[in-house]
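All the exercises in this workshop are built on plain-text protein records. A learned vocabulary of local backbone shapes supplies the integers on the structure line. Once this layout is familiar, the rest of the handout is easier to follow. An example says more than a description, so a record of this kind follows:
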Amino acid sequence: MENENNYQGWKNYETWNCKLWLDNDAGLQDLQREWLETAKNTPINPIWNREQTTRFTLADIIKEFVSDNNPLSDKATMYTNLLQSAIDNIDFNEIAQNIMSDC
């Protein structure tokens, strides 16, 4: 069975790096709290409980933020593909769970 926490206690380097950058800026720390409040106020999904609805909604918010701020998203290059591959490896649910635990 593969170890779930392979890099600095996180699933992988990409997840750790994303959360590191989200935490290293006061504005982004405030934004994380705003995202969490938005996710908490989302109506409960009939398939999930409150915690799951909040976590999955928060993960989607974070993923959208990261994707929308990709500086190479409008270019077709090898570097764009490499960056998108790294973004695709981020475990946004793990980041969401961490934000929920910290707040």
